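Quick check before the chapter quiz. The format below is the same one you will see on the exam, so make sure you can read both the input and the output lines.
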Amino acid sequence: MTAQMMTPIPELYVSHESSQKLKLEAADLVSHDLTARQVCDLELLMNGGFNPLKGFMSEADYDGVVSDMRLASGALWPMPITLDVADEFAGKLELGQDIALRDPEGVILATMTVTDRWMPDKSVEAKGVFGADDSAHPAVNYLHNTAGAVYLGGPVTGIQQPVHYDFRARRDTPNELRAYFRKLGWRKVVAFQTRNPLHRAHQELTFRAAKEVQANLLIHPVVGMTKPGDVDHFTRVRCYEAVLDQYPGSTTAMSLLNLAMRMGGPREAVWHGLIRANHGCTHFIVGRDHAGPGKNSAGEDFYGPYDAQDLFRKYQSEIGVEMVDFKHMVYVQERAQYEPMDEIEDKDDVTILNISGTELRRRLQEGLEIPEWFSFPEVVTELRRTRPARAKQGFTVFFTGYSGSGKSTIANALMVKLMEMGGRPVTLLDGDIVRKNLSSELGFSKEHRDLNIRRIGYVASEITKNGGIAICAPIAPYATTRRAVREDVEEFGAFVEVHVATSLEECERRDRKGLYKLARAGKIKEFTGISDPYDIPETPELRVETEKVDVDNCAHQVILKLEQMGLIKG
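Here is the expected output.
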């Protein structure tokens, strides 16, 4: 067993006695309420998963990491771990001041001494870390549209770890895993990183990896934050537990990693390797397009399929973990077994079967058969429970267009048509209704209009999550806000954007409420289309023209679209 695996990793926690005392003292400190991502980062800082970091990065560490993956000390580290906060909050702090870091419920998890405070150039960070300043990348989108404008750096003193009420027995700190490996006498441990359910190809791949390096296997799935649209971790862990008995118990362990992934491709692979080294692993499986976020704005992959393996190989000795490269496993029908694609010599004479992630999602959505050679029946049952066929899922229809374009009228007609069909509860979130019941205290400034749309999106996402149909009909003039609502909803079901493309001239001609007249007279400030912009949707699911077309026909176009998408049965 390597010395590295034998020795405990340094943690940032104080003793139990000190933590009780610190908790009382921290009650008087200025508090920062951590975001979900910051809670994940803090947990891995405190338990040694992010060793050698002793807190959120200083500006010097951050600059080194962004430009060449090195901390100021020279140590390899590829990912910025920063405490991003609002400008207003940062402005109230003095350098050298201690602040309390709390979870969303207000529980104090740690204190931090603020040694650094700076305004990062987020475009430089995006290009340096993720290879492109392109908001189609989830981490770049997060950087520009969610993260605070100011970064704080400084050492952290851990008081207590974040509380997890789920799968507690499956969550291990780096030192708990090291102790476990020591106890079982495991000298070599190969870690398998995953954010997807395990299917037969993964099982075959992990078996082969362990056999190839004669190591024990640690299935180490991420349960912190993954890519928007991924299967939720509750479902995934139930899937993992369903297939664990397919593995030999004496040589396989499973533990959950509360990591907030950045989907950063090559750099992320190196980061995952360093984290696994801290957890006592000696080998790590790096996949094709490891932690890849998919396509960029131009429709091309952000990273090449083997970029992550190439970068990992380059730094392997420094990471302290050997790479096992992921083979692309396919099913050979004639031999009824999985084999690595590049090792099949009689390719032309055998039937090679493979189901991509996209194809699997399609089959789940449409309620089609998923063959047993592809996945385990227990996994398929679990996935079908969480992801029923599309025609049984909740979804949101989101109308957007100028005031007076006919959104509400079409939305009402659609609601009646869907209620006539039956099968799912239908809720109409019309702009005026929402203003009265959800947002009565809001004005019409850009900030307040955004907030109103975010509230509509939140309610729609809850309706969608619970299997209902939400129909929204606000003006929603800003593309970034519509995208945020889409992301909220798509976590749980389909989002159908319908652009009611009535021209401004026609809307002004109709002017049923006399609003355009008031706007032209300067009596309504920031009125969409007159004194405030409307971002025309570039790629809505449907665009309807209302001039010279009756309402029934417009609503019928939406129904046809929903049928085509498989959301309602024809």
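If your answer matched, good. The mean pLDDT is 91.
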